[in-house]
Design goal:
Layout lengths: L11 E5 L3 H11 L4 E5 L12 E3 L13 E4 L4 H14 L2 E4 L12 E5 L2 E5 L6 H14 L4 H17 L10 H10 L3
Parallel strand pairs: 1-2, 1-4, 2-3, 4-5
Antiparallel strand pairs: 6-7
C-alpha cells in the first residue's frame, strides 16, 4: 500500500450503513471537509449535522457521482454488489473488516496543527496501529505544530523570493526550532 494524504474537501463520500463502525469513519471523513451521504435503512447512532441520510437499502447505481465509498453494512451480499459497482466505476472503496476488498485503509491518526502522524497495519490489526500511534505520539517533541508553522513561513518566504528550497539541509534549522521550544 502507498501511504497518501488525501484532500477530501468538498469531495462526495458515500457511507453504506449507520452503525458504530460507520460512525467512526464518518467522523474522520467529515473532519476533512467531505460532503457525506449515508444510505442505511436505519440509523443506529447519531449522525453529525451536515451528513445527508437516505433511509433505504443500497441499490446498484447508488455509487454514481461519489469519489470515495465506505461500505459498513456487515452484509456480504451487499458488499459483493458494492465491490462490483465500485470497481466498474473506478471509485475508491473501503469495505469495513474486509481488507482484501479495500482500495484504501483508514489509519490510526494523531494531528498536531499541520503535522499528521499516521500508522497503518493495512487492515490486518487496527488495534496494533492505534497502539503504535499512541507510542509515537508520546515520543514527539514539544512544539511540533509551532515548528511546522515556522518552517512553512520560512519556505514560503524563500519561494516568494525565487529561492529553491530543494537543496537546503533543514535538519539544523529544525533542531534550532525545537531547542527554542524547550526540547
Amino acid at each position: 500500500m502507498l501511504p497518501l494524504a488525501l484532500s477530501l474537501t468538498n469531495k462526495r463520500v458515500l457511507v453504506l450503513g449507520a452503525g458504530k463502525v460507520a460512525a467512526s469513519k464518518i467522523a474522520l471523513v467529515l473532519e476533512q471537509g467531505a460532503n457525506i451521504t449515508v444510505i442505511s435503512p436505519e440509523v443506529l447512532v447519531s449522525l453529525p449535522e451536515g451528513v445527508h441520510h437516505e433511509a433505504r437499502r443500497y441499490t446498484p447505481g447508488d455509487l454514481e457521482g461519489f469519489h470515495l465509498v465506505i461500505s459498513a453494512t456487515g452484509v456480504p451480499e451487499v458488499n459483493d454488489l458494492v465491490v462490483a459497482e465500485a470497481n466498474a466505476r473506478g471509485i475508491w472503496l473501503n469495505v469495513v473488516d474486509d481488507p482484501g476488498r479495500c482500495d484504501f485503509f483508514f489509519t490510526a491518526v494523531h494531528r498536531e496543527g499541520p503535522v499528521t502522524v499516521s500508522v497503518s497495519s493495512e487492515g490486518s490489526a487496527p488495534a496494533l496501529a492505534q497502539y503504535l500511534r499512541d507510542h509515537v505520539r508520546a515520543t514527539l517533541p514539544r512544539g511540533v505544530a509551532s515548528v511546522a508553522k515556522s518552517l512553512r513561513t520560512e519556505r514560503d518566504a524563500m519561494h516568494e523570493s525565487g529561492v529553491s528550497t530543494e537543496s537546503i539541509s533543514w535538519r539544523a534549522r529544525i533542531e534550532e526550532l525545537f531547542a527554542a521550544e524547550g526540547n
